[in-house]
Amino acid sequence: MAKSPVTVIGLGPMGATMASTFLGNGHPTTVWNRTAAKAEPLVAKGATLAATPADALAASELIVISQTDYTAMHDSLDDAAHALKGRVVVNLSSGSPDELRRAGEWASRHGADLLTGGVMAPPQGIGKPGAYVFYSGQEATLDRHRETLGELGEATFVGPDLGLSMLYYQAQLYLFWSTLTAYMQSVALLGAAGVSAEQFRPFAAVTVRDLASDGPMGFLKILTETIDAGVHPGDDHTLRMQAVGADHVVEAVREAGIDTAGPLALRDLFWRAVDAGHGSDGLSSVIEVIRRP
């Protein structure tokens, strides 16, 4: 059965890989990029280079955008907005949640349906096992193109609010970056005493594994349950005790002569929660000052 045509706008590392994936799966693929030369490798594989953004929009019902941000989409398509009517625009670029919501209004004014997405894979992971994409918008619109979009990664619908896909994406990025940055801080702390990163890595791996487990050290599950319940039992390991421990981490970092910004921010967050009346509660009570600073 013939595959449906797809247009890809934006041919940076992500967009070029998406276009290549569609081509490899048999979709007639039209591409457009502000720097046309970036399309040459894809044209050599069988893609069609559109001469203008309007031509790119006219070529397919399904338009996949992968650009730097939503400003780039408007810079590229505002003058061609007359060609948006009847199109499904899937924007996988980064932006703020409100920016995505405004883009939905813009698309609707021009007769198009917008799906927003956050791609949870690096360019080399597109179309590979483990890749997935958060989508928000109209689920029926996603369902019509789920098979095609699923070629990029599992299509994970998170709700009709167009900003929600980006909130999920940014929440995941923050978790990813902060976890790896905490690892680098720990490596630097031990490195000041001559310990290599490889010597520490097995212990860090156990901690990360256990945090996500369902066992007694599965604090991700434990915190999830207490946060959703709105109850933060301190038992025999109160937040005040952990804030004092955070003081000691800051002292150790200072003695090591390495950057203190991350540990200080964590220590101060703990003590703000204690000062807000959560000293006898558990660690999950910190979310109360995060929610209401």
Automatic annotation (TrEMBL):
Record domain NADPH-dependent reductive aminase-like C-terminal: where: 161-292
Official protein name in the record: NAD(P)-dependent oxidoreductase
Family: Belongs to the HIBADH-related family.
Any Pfam family the entry gives: NAD_binding_2
Domain 6-phosphogluconate dehydrogenase NADP-binding intervals: 6-158
GO molecular function per UniProt: NADP binding; oxidoreductase activity
Keywords, in A-Z order: Oxidoreductase
UniProt cross-references to Gene3D superfamilies, sorted A to Z: N-(1-d-carboxylethyl)-l-norvaline Dehydrogenase, domain 2, NAD(P)-binding Rossmann-like Domain
Keyword Oxidoreductase: yes
Keyword Nucleus recorded: no
